[in-house]
Structure formats: C-alpha cells, structure tokens
Amino acid sequence: MFGLMLFLHFAGLAAWFGALLAAAVTLSVGGKQAGSPELRAAGVRLIRVFQGIGHTGAVALLVSGVVMIISMDLGKNKPLWLEVMEKGGGTVILLALVVLGMMGSRLMKRLAEGRQSGVRPSRYVAAVSVFLVLIASVMLVVSIKI
C-alpha cells in the first residue's frame, strides 16, 4: 500500500510541476500576441488542459501524502523535513489550487469574451512562477532531509 501511495505521490508531483511549467512557458511565449482570435482560443484550451492535468496531479499529491503520513504513525517525533513536507507542501498545494483555479478561470473568461484590455496572461504566468519556486523549495528541503 505504501509503495502505491509513493508512486502516486511522485506521479502527482511530476504531473503538477510539469503542467505548471508547461503553462508558464507556453503562455509567456504566446501571451505577447494575444490579439488574434485563434491565439485566444488556443489560450483557453491550453489553460483548461493544463489546469486539468495540474489540479489532478496536485490532488493526487495531497491525498497520497496524507495517506502516507498517517500510515507512518510517527506522532510528534517527526523530523524537520517531514514537517516541512507535511505543512509547507500541503499549504502550497491548497493555495495553488485555489489561487490558480480562480486566476485561470478569470483569464479563460476574458480570453473567451475577446476583450482587448487586460487579456495579457502575465499575472497568471507570474503566479504560476511563484508556485513553481515554492514547490521547488519544498522539494529541496525534503530532498536534502534537513
């Protein structure tokens, strides 16, 4: 059971991190030419697909992490890296789901309506980039096991 949860944990992390990274790179490159209807439609599809993959990966990461921590049954004797992964990682996941979900749906709505003002996805790309740095920070602390 623990092995399956560990696999889901790493698969969820890869899907989430990869979807966020791909969305940030693709939107930053294509965001400069957001005026054409084809690019706006592609932007809506891109955000929808990457949010679907990313949110699914984040939920899998969160659920598998909770199951693994409960099954370890360490009580209050957890090392610092496990505390960071549990509290910091869980907080980053929940914040990312809420913030990026709201910002992504707002951006998709603006792109679908074809508004010319405020359509640039730079704020969304900046928020995605912040979450990528936070995810990488948690991964660094966990991987060096402080």
UniProtKB/TrEMBL annotation:
Keywords: Membrane, Transmembrane, Transmembrane helix
UniProt protein name: Copper resistance protein D domain-containing protein
Transmembrane segments: 6-29, 49-72, 84-103, 124-144
The species this protein was found in: Paenibacillus filicis
